[in-house]
């Protein structure tokens, strides 16, 4: 009987233990569920319906909103860990992850979970939201702008770097209200702005606003002077720095500019940019903006509510951005997270500052769109890529798409050489030539003395259109396209590192279009960069692939086996090489023919260039429907280890318009 009672007692105890365990498991699951619900609510920054005890959910939501307002329009990712019970208290870890100005802030808080009115709920406390957060404290994030990376040229020259400027505008706290309109108009007239527009901006700004009118380079000869500016009541000139090139025109189209982000840029940035941020526009500054801009630093402070660090509703920051509020001061703040700013990475280029400035200066007085591109044939380095003032900021040098005209006869000549021709090949240069009803003629002013049966060399030197068109049956359109690739035209440039059009030559064409292709018209298109690449390939005796942006840590000379620069973009029509690269023997023949353009053709003006002998080819390409048609003026030149292309839109004849520009550039480059 005793044994039976013992067995019964043991069995009852076991059943009771199982029942208690089942109850614990159920409680643990309920607690976990409550914590999971709260984590989802916190991720949405809405706890108004969350299982909370110790506070009314509505009051908790009000407190939550106040606590996180200073972090900007961003939400955390919150996940609940596993519930655990110890000494009768059930807790659940809450893992937080914030993205603030592109920086990750991670931490864990502890939630207490308990029954409340028969339901499991999380005990509300400020410490749930951030470690050690106390009643009356809110979170405020502040960003620190990193130093923007420079754009570096050959010899480590700083092409774009921080340079002194003055921000000119009206400080409304320094002028009485009745004088603000007249001051705004006077300052606008002084700096060349529309007085009515600027006066409206000043009137619309807040009572204590500084309304910027213009940013000026702070140079010794700056106009207007600070004295002239401050003579206007309320006008001020505030010293600052901005990433700038040496001059306003220096490489502007290829380098781009840096300024405050526009509304459109902010919208497209996906929260990376906000009002007041500096960002690149155009050229390399825009293409490599992420690298150049670096990463903002961010510090999160716990601040007593109502302290100087509390952001106002009017200063609400953008998504993921820190609040643009004043710095929290004194004992009212403490740092709970800090990520130091990371300066931008410099972008290294092959641009030679002296040659770039020379190219810009050479084009300074040219009215139409224009360009000069200079390449070092030995390694393909782009030494200068200038677009003249007539290009109105467009990168004509690298992105322009124009019929090349007679400079394309360089491609024709190589194709003919590959068919067995020599520079002495007799060709017929007639005043006109008709192909399927389309009449072609030579450029205006073609010398009559060089009509008739002439050697191919003379046809190239004097640019006889009809002579080259007469050879169209010896070179197919497909062969023309392939030969162009032998000279680097229309070929991918994986080491360029910049957006560019590298030329396009169709490989199929009807008879009339094929005839037009022989003189660089029809659907044949070049950029000045493509023309310079062609000239460089002739100078080197090998296909040249241009390079502009160097890899991080790589200097002027390309490393053997170097990989493509990230972000390199070629022409949409560029392709893998089709024709075999030009050989040294072929190049030698073309160099002699280009030299003949100078010694016996119509580019004799280049004989004055000092140093190595200059070779050249002029080009004039008709376009449009005017009578007489407008023309593009081209010339390419090779001079030692330098290949240059000059282009002027609506420029007349290549020899008379672009020729003098090339002469000026080569002469000064050799000095």
Automatic annotation (TrEMBL):
<dbReference type="InterPro" id="IPR007887">
    <property type="entry name" value="MecA_N"/>
</dbReference>
<dbReference type="InterPro" id="IPR012338">
    <property type="entry name" value="Beta-lactam/transpept-like"/>
</dbReference>
<keyword id="KW-0732">Signal</keyword>
<feature type="domain" description="Penicillin-binding protein transpeptidase">
    <location>
        <begin position="371"/>
        <end position="661"/>
    </location>
</feature>
<feature type="compositionally biased region" description="Low complexity">
    <location>
        <begin position="559"/>
        <end position="574"/>
    </location>
</feature>
<feature type="domain" description="NTF2-like N-terminal transpeptidase">
    <location>
        <begin position="31"/>
        <end position="136"/>
    </location>
</feature>
<keyword id="KW-0472">Membrane</keyword>
<dbReference type="Pfam" id="PF05223">
    <property type="entry name" value="MecA_N"/>
</dbReference>
<feature type="region of interest" description="Disordered">
    <location>
        <begin position="272"/>
        <end position="291"/>
    </location>
</feature>
<protein>
    <submittedName>
        <fullName>Penicillin-binding transpeptidase domain-containing protein</fullName>
    </submittedName>
</protein>
<feature type="signal peptide">
    <location>
        <begin position="1"/>
        <end position="21"/>
    </location>
</feature>
<feature type="domain" description="Penicillin-binding protein dimerisation">
    <location>
        <begin position="144"/>
        <end position="308"/>
    </location>
</feature>
<dbReference type="InterPro" id="IPR005311">
    <property type="entry name" value="PBP_dimer"/>
</dbReference>
<dbReference type="InterPro" id="IPR036138">
    <property type="entry name" value="PBP_dimer_sf"/>
</dbReference>
<feature type="region of interest" description="Disordered">
    <location>
        <begin position="555"/>
        <end position="581"/>
    </location>
</feature>
<dbReference type="InterPro" id="IPR001460">
    <property type="entry name" value="PCN-bd_Tpept"/>
</dbReference>
<dbReference type="InterPro" id="IPR050515">
    <property type="entry name" value="Beta-lactam/transpept"/>
</dbReference>
<dbReference type="Pfam" id="PF00905">
    <property type="entry name" value="Transpeptidase"/>
</dbReference>
<feature type="region of interest" description="Disordered">
    <location>
        <begin position="303"/>
        <end position="350"/>
    </location>
</feature>
<feature type="compositionally biased region" description="Low complexity">
    <location>
        <begin position="310"/>
        <end position="332"/>
    </location>
</feature>
<dbReference type="Pfam" id="PF03717">
    <property type="entry name" value="PBP_dimer"/>
</dbReference>
<comment type="similarity">
    <text>Belongs to the transpeptidase family.</text>
</comment>
């Amino acid at each position: 009987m005793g044994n039976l009672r013992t067995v019964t007692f043991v069995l009852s105890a076991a059943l009771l233990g199982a029942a208690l365990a089942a109850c614990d498991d159920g409680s643990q699951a309920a607690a976990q569920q409550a914590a999971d619900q709260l984590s989802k609510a916190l991720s949405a920054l809405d706890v108004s319906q969350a299982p909370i005890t110790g506070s009314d959910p509505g009051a908790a939501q009000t407190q939550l909103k106040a606590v996180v307002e200073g972090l900007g329009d961003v939400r955390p990712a919150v996940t609940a860990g596993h519930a655990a019970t110890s000494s009768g208290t059930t807790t659940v870890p809450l893992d937080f992850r914030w993205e603030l100005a592109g920086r990750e802030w991670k931490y864990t808080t502890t939630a207490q979970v308990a029954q409340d009115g028969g339901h499991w709920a999380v005990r509300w406390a400020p410490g749930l939201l951030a470690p050690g957060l106390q009643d009356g404290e809110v979170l405020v994030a502040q960003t620190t702008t990193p130093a923007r990376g420079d754009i570096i040229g050959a010899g480590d020259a700083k092409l774009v770097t921080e340079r002194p400027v003055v921000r000119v505008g009206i400080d409304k706290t320094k002028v009485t209200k009745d004088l603000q309109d007249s001051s705004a108009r006077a300052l606008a007239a002084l700096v060349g702005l529309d007085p009515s527009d600027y006066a409206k901006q000043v009137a619309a700004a807040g009572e204590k606003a500084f309304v910027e009118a213009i940013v000026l380079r702070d140079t010794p000869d700056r106009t207007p002077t600070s004295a002239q500016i401050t003579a206007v009541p309320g006008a001020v000139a505030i010293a600052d720095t901005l990433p700038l090139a040496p001059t306003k025109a220096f490489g502007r189209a290829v380098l781009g500019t840096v300024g405050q982000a526009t509304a459109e840029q902010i919208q497209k940035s996906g929260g990376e940019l906000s009002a007041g941020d500096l960002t690149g526009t155009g050229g390399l500054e825009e293409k490599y903006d992420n690298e150049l801009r670096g990463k903002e630093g961010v510090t999160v402070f716990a601040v007593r509510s109502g302290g100087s660090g509390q952001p106002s509703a009017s200063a609400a920051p953008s998504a993921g951005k820190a609040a643009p509020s004043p710095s929290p001061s004194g004992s009212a703040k403490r740092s709970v997270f800090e990520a130091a700013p990371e300066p931008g990475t410099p972008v290294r280029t092959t641009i030679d500052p002296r040659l770039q400035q020379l190219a810009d200066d050479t084009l300074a007085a040219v009215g139409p769109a224009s360009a000069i591109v200079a390449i070092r044939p030995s390694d393909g380095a782009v030494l200068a890529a200038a677009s003249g003032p007539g290009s109105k900021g467009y990168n004509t040098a690298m992105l322009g798409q124009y019929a090349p005209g007679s400079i394309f006869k360089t491609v024709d000549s190589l194709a003919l050489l590959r068919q067995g021709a020599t520079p002495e090949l007799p060709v017929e240069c007639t005043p006109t030539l008709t192909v399927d009803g389309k009449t072609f003629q030579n450029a205006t002013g073609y010398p009559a003395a060089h009509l008739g049966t002439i050697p191919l060399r003379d046809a190239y030197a004097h640019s006889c259109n009809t002579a080259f068109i007469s050879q169209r049956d010896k070179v197919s359109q497909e062969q023309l396209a392939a030969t162009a690739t032998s000279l680097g035209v229309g070929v991918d440039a994986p080491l360029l590192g910049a957006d560019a059009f590298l030329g396009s030559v169709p490989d199929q064409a009807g008879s009339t279009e094929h005839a037009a292709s022989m003189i660089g018209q029809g659907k044949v298109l070049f950029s000045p960069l493509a023309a310079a690449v062609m000239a460089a390939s002739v100078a080197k005796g090998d296909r040249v692939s241009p390079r502009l942006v160097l890899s991080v840590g790589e200097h002027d000379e390309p490393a053997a086996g170097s990989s493509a620069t990230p972000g390199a973009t070629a022409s949409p029509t560029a392709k893998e090489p089709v024709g075999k690269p030009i050989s040294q023997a072929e190049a030698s023949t073309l160099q002699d023919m280009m030299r003949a353009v100078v010694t016996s053709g119509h580019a004799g003006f280049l004989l004055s260039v000092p140093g190595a002998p200059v070779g050249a080819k002029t080009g004039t390409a008709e376009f449009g429907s005017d009578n007489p048609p407008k023309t593009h003026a081209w010339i390419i030149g090779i001079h030692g280890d330098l290949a240059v292309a000059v282009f002027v839109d609506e420029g007349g004849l290549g020899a008379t318009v672009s020729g003098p520009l090339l002469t000026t550039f080569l002469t000064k480059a050799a000095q």
